[in-house]
Design goal:
Strand content: under 5%
Shape: elongated
Number of helices: 3
Distance between the termini: 68 Å
Length: about 110
């Protein structure tokens, strides 16, 4: 009896149990919302806008300090420098495209 029961048990574990376990967790992983939610996107856009405002304020402060002290050299990136703003321009284009897609799906 053991000669038949052990191979049937092993085969059922290998060919039924193991694939079921793998596919179960693959399905759980796919349905777990592996992407970013709309609330997360809104929060990121809000943080990006806040960052842009703070960057503008820092530029203003640096210009004021540079005007008062001739030996002051800003240690950060220059706001109007084209090379420094390439990544920001790409990000702004991506955000504009995302907003257009979002508005298109809403309508």
């Amino acid at each position: 009896m053991d000669e038949i029961l052990v191979p049937v048990f092993v085969c059922s574990i290998l060919f039924i149990g193991l694939p079921w376990l793998i596919f179960h967790y693959i399905t759980k992983w796919k349905t777990a919302g592996g992407g970013i939610t709309t609330d997360d996107e809104a929060l990121l856009e809000e943080l990006y806008a806040l960052t842009k405002r703070l960057d503008d304020r820092m530029d203003t402060v640096e210009r004021l300090v540079a005007h008062d002290h001739a030996d002051f050299k800003p240690a950060r990136l220059i706001a109007d420098n084209k090379a420094d703003n390439e990544e920001l321009d790409e990000l702004e284009a991506l955000l504009a495209r995302k907003r257009a897609e979002h508005k298109g799906t809403r309508a």
